[in-house]
Specification:
This protein is α+β, with helices and mostly antiparallel strands. The protein has 16 helices and 11 strands. The protein has a 7-stranded antiparallel sheet with strand order 1-11-8-4-5-6-7.
């Protein structure tokens, strides 16, 4: 009997130690990652900031005002007629936005004026995009250059401002809605609104940066407000426990570096026929989430709603009312990035990423809230991920010690048992033991690089007297990444 027990235990141990098969080479999406290729421009902008700081705000004020007037003139021209994505007016707007940033960074009292200009630009560009072909590369590039880069330029100025002087809330378009409403972070949200946000975990930075158009957001949630009680909740998919319904306070209890409120345009034909459609979609999503367990979808397959990832919670809900969100799908065409993601279970590399929902012309940006106190930390996280992904393209892997596989598999078995009773275990449902180890490796490497970058940032500030702009952060991240040796320790 003891022999049989011993042999069974040995067999179980050997089974636990069997190496996990490597993921099959992923079929990446067709495309090319966006790249600025403008290092000289960034150097010139940094030099402009230093000149403005040396000259003083009183001397720089006339140039700021002239550039603001130029930007407003260009916005009026863009709003007055239909333009194509390649229009020179947008090139001039981009130039004015970038030129203004360093001067405002040196004179942060003008940040509100800068925010107004960039927010108006976003509204004008999104209005123009309603008639553009969202499948065209020129459209995607233009939206990214104007919306993402406009926000990035504003944040560079914000990072140079004294603490407590930067507004957390930026209001956008007050898109009308008839659905029940509540308030979150000082903004009235309506049932059926979509919240895109950014979490504080390293994996949040990977989700935000990990596609052909690296962005700011890592999570999507759908707002529901009960028309009878006024109780507000959100429907969202969590990696740890699948689709769940949370109160607004529970939603905000998870770290939120950013929250953007998106709302379906009231003038869309289906909305004009029935303006309550977003509330109907949100109500159905809540009912389904409470009615049965919906696992998290690590494959990122937005066409199969048996499992849902966070973006799919919103897209599936709107699909029921005849609205297809993400008019232009996100693409992951970098082989190194796709290889890393496939190790976590991703199989679909043309999918719906949170950051790209902002570019959908069917949606208006109602408001945007960011935590100014964590802005630099967020930029550091992004820079670290960018440097790590460059390493992935050079062949860095998220490997792990083979001795960890057996305990990881035991943790997975324990988690599966908990999942069967509705509880959450240490390994998320749908994530393999090997995938959990790769995630652990990514998080640990990110932390190692991040700690070094933060030290280098403090050194930069001591030596130069200002916060390093993003292009400098990426250089520091590359340096720190090389110091720990490729994929990390």
């Amino acid at each position: 009997m003891l022999l049989v027990t011993g042999l069974a235990a040995l067999a179980a141990l050997l089974f636990l130690l069997v190496p996990a098969p490597e993921p099959a080479p992923p079929h990446t999406a067709a495309g090319t990652p966006f790249a600025w290729h403008q290092d000289e421009r960034w150097k010139a902008l940094e030099a402009s900031f230093l000149r403005a700081r040396a000259d003083g705000c009183e001397s720089v004020a006339p140039r700021i005002e002239a550039t603001l007037r130029d930007g407003r003139r260009l916005l009026a021209a863009a709003a007055s007629r239909q333009l194509e994505p390649k229009s020179a007016v947008f090139d001039e707007l981009e130039r004015a936005t970038f030129e203004l940033g360093p001067m405002v960074g040196a004179c942060p009292g003008r940040i509100p004026n800068y925010i107004d200009l960039v927010t108006t630009m976003r509204s004008v560009v999104k209005t123009q995009s309603r008639r553009w072909d969202m499948g065209q590369l020129a459209t995607r590039d233009r939206l990214y250059r104007m919306l993402y880069a406009g926000r990035a330029a504003v944040e560079e100025a914000m990072l140079q401002a004294p603490r407590g002087t930067v507004p957390a809330l930026v209001r956008g378009d007050d898109e009308p809605s008839v659905t029940p409403f509540a308030e979150i972070l000082g903004v009235r949200v309506h049932s059926g609104d979509v919240l895109v946000s950014r979490g504080g975990a390293p994996t949040s930075a990977l989700i935000a940066r990990g596609n052909d158009y690296p962005g700011n957001f890592s999570h999507v949630a759908l707002v529901h407000v009960d028309g009878r009680t006024g109780a507000a909740s959100v429907v969202e998919a969590h990696i740890e426990r699948g689709v769940a319904v949370a109160t607004l306070s529970e939603y905000l209890a998870d770290v939120k570096l950013w929250v953007m409120v998106l709302r379906l345009r009231a003038d869309l034909p289906r909305m004009a026929a029935d303006p309550t459609l977003p509330h109907q979609a949100a109500t159905a999503a809540v009912r389904e989430a409470r009615g049965h367990h919906i696992p998290y979808d690590f494959s990122m397959d937005f066409s199969d709603h048996g499992r849902l990832f966070c973006s799919e919670v919103a897209s599936a809900a709107f699909e029921r009312i005849g609205i297809t969100l993400w008019m232009s799908l996100s693409r992951i065409s970098s082989p190194g990035l796709a290889s890393w993601l496939s190790g976590f279970g991703v199989t679909h590399f043309e999918t719906q990423e949170p950051s790209d929902l902002e570019y959908d012309p069917q949606l208006a940006v109602v408001a945007e809230w960011r935590d100014p106190t964590t802005l630099l930390a967020d930029h550091v996280d992004n820079a670290v991920v960018d440097a790590m992904l460059e390493g992935a393209e050079r062949g860095d892997t998220l490997d792990y010690a083979w001795t960890l596989l057996a305990p990881a598999r035991l943790a997975k078995l324990y988690s599966s048992a908990l999942n069967s009773f509705g509880f959450v275990g240490p390994v998320p449902q749908g994530l393999s033991a090997a995938g959990a180890l790769r995630t652990r490796r990514f998080v640990r490497t990110h932390a190692q690089v991040r700690d070094r970058v933060l030290r280098l940032v403090r050194e930069f500030e001591r030596n130069r007297g200002y916060v390093p702009p993003y292009w400098e952060l990426v250089k520091l991240a590359r340096r720190a990444h090389s110091q720990i040796g490729g994929g990390g320790g």
